[in-house]
């Protein structure tokens, strides 16, 4: 970080819902990692403060950036919303990995960051290591993005790929995805399209500051898809993919999540398994597609680190 | 530009090898454009100074950024090298669209920019509207790029796609490319692989500051490829593509341009016609592929505008 980015990053605290580690307590990061590698629970480690939750920790430490990595909650965005508010109110910047707070409270959090001098980044929440909002805002700067299409959810894409490649039913493919740890035990958010819809809301807000709400996205998942439909599409050399789309009708932004039948010429037609991809259609740069980026915890951590680097450069 | 990027861009001069327009002469940009739309030659326009070449213009005007758009010359990098030196020495930044100066004199120009406080950008030279160096440096920040593979030349990809889709010979496909204005009348730099090799040198310098030289790239073009070879590959469900590669062997950077046979799983296997694509292999984000981006003059201009926006933000 020092050599490549001229950054001196220091980890000053780590907090969960039930314990916190503070660098000021004197236990070094290598010692902390050594204990974690011995598979001890975080809240039972030496020199970790039991009972200190994330909010208390944010209030107590001096820092510049909050790295938020709590579970996504589309209902009220908690606990991320409260934690982001606390950090931004302290004048910190924040890198968010969960989607709920940004889907429910984007405008409020954006304004809070602006008023207190911090910055808010959520590349990790949008598609983890696959660069989506960064690509749109930075690499396509100067062009107008007119339409976005994405395979934004690896679980559903894995299921559809299994069904296409092996002719199995939706239920059997879902079971495979769960057995491999790709789908969660409650896969509702993924297979009913809400994870994709949430990511569309984040992209719409990042690209156009559009104030899109989750209830404005037309959402259809993949629960009803049959092996026969997929075979039928393949007979016409087409593939069925769960596509999240954003497009403009006049000055009205439209958003949908639905199964679409793609020809082999579509840049998303060959995104298979748990991979993801996004295509940006622009006025002056034609279409630019970005594919890949691993969805595992290392990829998510790498995306958060990327956001921290950019936050530090912006500060 | 004002609303989206808080930038107040002003065009202060335009120069060719034989004439210059200066905003200080009083002729407005709309009036200039109106004359150009009537297909008058630039050096014959009203209020354009005949005999003022680019070097004289750079010396005479006050500006912050040079937008360089001269023909690529791999021999000595001229005239771009001299013009970039002049602008950087004045403390300006520069956005370059041609490759020769950057391939031949990258380290010198980088140091000159650093010493005089300017910045040098060459996204437009690398793959025009396809984000390549921007993606690597910004969207993959924090990850280590271990390997790069790209279809970096639209002309050769168009020829190979024509041969694969229609079973025609190399000569016939080249003729088609020339008839459609995709290949130049002297297509040597493209079909012998040197355009791709030059772009590899730019990427290597942008990603790793590697000091790679053009004579260190192992280059084989597509002049010898036959329809039979392409058919043979197709029989194994593979496609032949001209791939530029950069990879590390220990601490030694390797670079090659050669025909490679790709399976359908490779993200570049479906990049057809005059489209381009690049795949970055990383340590923490897996592989990230970016495809598309139009190669026409509008796309090149959009890429230059993107670089100007970033230069203005960095200043």
What does this structure look like?
The structure is a homodimer of 315-residue chains. In chain A, the strands form three sheets. The first copy, chain A, has a six-stranded mixed β-sheet with strand order 8-10-9-7-11-12. A three-stranded antiparallel β-sheet of chain A has the order 1-2-3, covered by helices on one side. A three-stranded parallel β-sheet of chain A has the order 4-5-6, with helices on both faces. Helices cover 41% and strands 20% of the residues of chain A. The two termini of chain A are 16 Å apart. Chain A has 315 residues and is of the alpha/beta class. Chain A contains 13 helices and twelve strands. In chain A, helix 3 (54-60) runs parallel beside helix 4, helix 4 packs parallel to helix 5 and helix 5 (100-116) runs parallel beside helix 11. Chain A has helices at residues 2-5, 29-37, 54-60, 80-89, 100-116, 123-127, 133-139, 154-166, 170-179, 188-191, 194-208, 227-235, 297-314, and strands at residues 13-15, 19-22, 49-50, 65-68, 93-96, 120-121, 145-151, 218-219, 238-249, 252-263, 277-282, 287-292. At the A-B interface, helix 7, strand 12 and helix 13 of A face helix 7, strand 12 and helix 13 of B. Strand 12 (287-292) of chain A pairs antiparallel with strand 12 (287-292) of chain B.
Shape of chain A: globular
Which chain pair has the greatest contact? A-B, 41 and 41 residues
Average pLDDT rating of chain A: 94
User: Structural class of the helix and strand makeup of chain A?
Assistant: alpha/beta
Key terms:
three-stranded antiparallel beta sheet, alpha/beta, homodimer, 315 residues, six-stranded mixed beta sheet, 20% strand
